[in-house]
Amino acid sequence: MSGVDIKGFALQMTPEQVQDRMAALKAQDPQAEISGGHADCESEALARLRGQSPQPTCQSTLLIYTSDYSLHVDFIEDFPSHPGVSRAYTIQLLQSNLNTTADQRAFRDLVLSKYGRPSYVDNSGMEMWYCPVTSARPHCSQSWNNFGDEPNAFPDLWVVVGNPSHVQLSDWRYHSIRQRAIGKAIEQSNTHRTTL
User: φ, ψ for residue 84 (rounded to 5)?
Assistant: First the structure.
């Protein structure tokens, strides 16, 4: 799924890149609103354990709202490769102006023209998954709840067509690796503090 985007937003973008793209969308629609949230960097917890001064906070979310859609980007610190640098691991679009069946079909056709044939389609034809198919996941429909380490199963694109329609691009494996790295570093830091 490399090179895949939602409205120009891609996985592993930095907050600055996401803000630039949101600013470009706002320039097209001045009524759009942009907001965001911050959280402690994962490396900040580690710095505190080591008695060091805290690092800056990391971007945790950025959102843009318009009358037609909302788009939400979640970030995680790229630890240990780039402490203090956040990268996007989930992008969610809610398209809310699809009031008729014809609107929804047109949106589905747009999804198919942009992303191609999905790996899995439900019986209604309105829920679609895009991800590598493995023998463990022949329909790749369990991705939403799968935080494991299948080497080729991430990232995933999930689409539900309706009103609103939902498009989500996620790399949970990237998120899981970052979480494990900080957990291991904190565990090692605690071990060093408790041994003589």
Answer: 85, -5
Task: Write down the domain spans for the chain.
Answer: 15-97+131-144+169-190
Sign, Cα dihedral of 103, 161, 68, 115: negative
Q: Do residues 94 and 165 touch, judged by C-beta distance below 8 A?
A: yes
Question: In terms of C-beta density within 10 A (0-12 exposed, 13-18 middle, 19 or more buried), how is residue 57 classed?
Answer: middle
pTM reported for the whole predicted model:
0.79
pLDDT value at position 25?
Answer: 96
* Nearest-angstrom CA–CA distance, 170 and 19: 19
Parallel, antiparallel, or unpaired: how do β-strands 156-160 and 69-77 relate? unpaired
Instruction: Indicate if the pLDDT at residue 92 is higher than 90.
Output: yes
Q: Is 147 left (phi over 0), alpha (psi -120 to 50) or beta?
A: alpha
